Amino acid sequence: MPEPQSGEPHVSGxxxxxxxxxxxxxxxxxxxxxxxxxxxxxxxxxxxxxAGGPADKARSLxxxxxxxxxxxxxxxxxxxxxxxxxxxxxxxxxxxxxNPLKCDLSKxxxxxxxxxxxxxxxxxxxxxxxxxYGARISISVGVCATLGVALLGSVLGGLAGFFGxxxxxxxxxxxxxxxxxxxxxxxxVLLSVVTSNSVWPVIGFMVLLGWPQISRIARGSVIxxxxxxxxxxxxxxxxxxxxxxxxxxxxxxxxxVIVVATIALGTYIALxxxxxxxxxxxxxxxxxxxxxxxxxSPYIRNAPHALLWPSGALAITVLAFxxxxxxxxxxxxxxxx
Amino acid sequence: MGRYVIRxxxxxxxxxxxxxxxxxxxxxxxxxxxxxxxGDRECDPATAAQLRREFGLDKPVWQQYLTYMGNVFxxxxxxxFNGQEVTELMASAFPVTIRLTIxxxxxxxxxxxxxxxxxxxxRGRPVDTGVLLTTxxxxxxxxxxxxxxxxxxxxxxxxxxxxxVSSDAPFDELIVPGLVLASVSLAYVTRLTRTSIAExxxxxxxxxxxxxxxxxxxxxRKHLLRNSLIPVVTFIGTDIGALMGGAIVTERIFNIHGVxxxxxxxxxxxxxxxxxxxxxVLVLVFLAANLLVDxxxxxxxxxxxxx
Lengths: 337, 307
Known about the structure:
The complex is a heterodimer.
Chain A: H1 7-26, H2 29-49, H3 61-70, H4 73-90, H5 127-163, H6 165-179, H7 183-191, H8 199-226, H9 229-236, H10 241-278, H11 289-296, H12 304-332
Chain B: H1 2-29, H2 33-37, H3 45-55, H4 61-72, H5 86-121, H6 126-140, H7 143-157, H8 175-200, H9 204-211, H10 216-253, H11 259-268, H12 272-300
Membrane topology (chain B): Multi-pass membrane protein
Transmembrane segments (chain B): 12-31, 96-118, 130-154, 174-192, 228-254, 274-300
Subcellular location (chain B): Cell membrane
């Protein structure tokens, strides 16, 4: 076993060895035993190489990816930006003392002045306060829609990929159908009837039209994972379907889903703003960047600042999520190593 | 080849039926079209019932769908509620959007692939990093923001273009709107080409071609590009449908009277016939473009044979 280390790595290393041993018992003894010892030496070598590191657990794809991410400046910057956005969307009053709905028409379209760094919009509302408060809707729509899409898409796609057969081809045809409908168009049609002014219809629409994208990814990666030898071994050992799915396939198939979902989060935020811009997403008096940009566009010539600040905030938010997704993909993609 | 095309055409049928049925149901959820006809006042019940009968709206949805599809295949897309033939609207709207899409696709092909090849061959150099960062920014700025900003800068501040497009929408007025429409896809094409080129540049056949002493441009054009373009062609092909349907935002910003404009008006006025008709055609375009992409594979990659 490896050199003296903290308690935990020993345990997990040992567990892995017994698992290998158990598989070996069912297979051809000689070769599999070799594989087991090889695995042990490999692990020993890995353990030695970074014995000084802080987290010396068994090196999974995840711990490897995490080590990569912590050293990636792109990840650190985008994660900090996202952390900041999440904090101000939970407690906007931390950095903006005003009320986003308190407007003074006499100050309409005025530029930057002390206490109001971003100036005023067409209704005389403080652009800075509204931009800060606008984060809440964007972040909550993005996060909730992504959670919903990822959950629905990966469950449906994963099950279809795992079981195959009729349900799989049925699901594939359904995803084809959804892919044939332009997203913005579907949003216009579905949301134009909605009268309730909350984020839930927008989120619901995104989940409804967004899940096929994730389900396609999940299906593909489950099919790849399913063919691995360890899944065959688990099946040979008589593992139930649910055990194979949860213990063996999911951990190995979930990486692409996470990557696509992170990048999609950015696009959902952009989509919410686009729908609000088209007048079907959220409507005033909700405070959303899309609404503010839409409201500022008619007098863009006189008061471009009212359009530029929320646009900038929107772009930075989307950029942060896309960069985060990019960094996570680089860390999780073994091909780039 | 012939058999493959037929099989693909047959596979398209369920997708077509599903997509049109889905949009039909969505539009039905959209609300009572008759209520929109009477303007702001409440409809007189007798008139409403008569209109309902006239438009066939008293029948169940599936029957409406079948009747509608039957008519579509004889070229009858019905009439909008203001009495204008939907086909007439299409005849005025589609040429405009097709021109806009052509401009956008040209931008994707010319700029996107060029940038992708340049950066893919110089991975890790300043050019590569610069272009990569630019594509990230372009992807993160939503189309309507890009559009409004370009309109403000080029149209209003500097006066290079007219801020809104005339109703004829000739090609030269569509250059900037086309660029705006293409922007996000352009960035994706660049990234996709870059990855693909960078991966293939390490391929054995490229090394062989270089070792044979072929000139560099010939290696890139004949060997590298041809093998690297397959994923890019797939993307651009599927993008045609998305561009035509996604032109709503661009057309609204630049006041272009194309498909997006008609759809937007149709949705706002609850004009179900217009919406369903246009979406049906868009779905057909999407399916046809996908088929075309699959057939193009054989041209690009002779290893693929369709039996």
